[in-house]
Amino acid sequence: MNIPFLGNWRKRHEGARGAGLAAAVAADPDGVAELLAECELLRVRAGQRGLELDDSPASLAALDQLPPRWRDDPEELPWLGNDAGLYLGTVLVRNVPGAVWSIRPGGQPVVRLASGREIDVVEAGLDWAMAGSPELSQAYSESAEK
Questions:
Q1: What confidence tens digit (pLDDT) does each residue in 57-88 have?
Q2: How far is CA 19 from the centre of its chain?
Q3: Nearest-CA neighbor of 102 among 93, 117, 94, 112?
Q4: What is the C-alpha separation between 28 and 11, in angstroms, rounded?
Q5: Least enclosed by CB within 10 Å: which of 31, 64, 84, 113?
Q6: How many C-beta atoms surround the C-beta of residue 19 within 10 A?
Q7: Cα(82)–Cα(2) distance, rounded to whole angstroms?
Q8: H or E element: which one contains 80?
């Protein structure tokens, strides 16, 4: 998985891929959560359409209602999907009790729920960006259920 703003950080930290990021999550979970919450491309594109992303479940429903014009740009599509997944994860972590960011051994960020279930939010974001399904609000609702 390629997260642009983490590229330089990864270059400075040696070891197995993802090990440095996993250590960063353990040492400073709030700091890493802030980095993962940036989702700059998604926030810019949503803002261009008059939607301010406030890290709430309602904002996921609003994103679902946007016309999928990003599908017209095959170069931007995977980046926007990645951001959509990280945004979904951010909304989960900030609104679902016990939800936290976790890093798989390969370096992929996922959200771990209090139940221990892991949500591959980046995959969900990519599916949403490419096909519109499942909707981000639906992925949130299914993940937030107890």
A1: 999 999 999 988 888 899 999 999 999 999 99
A2: 19
A3: 112
A4: 19
A5: 31
A6: 14
A7: 9
A8: helix 77-95
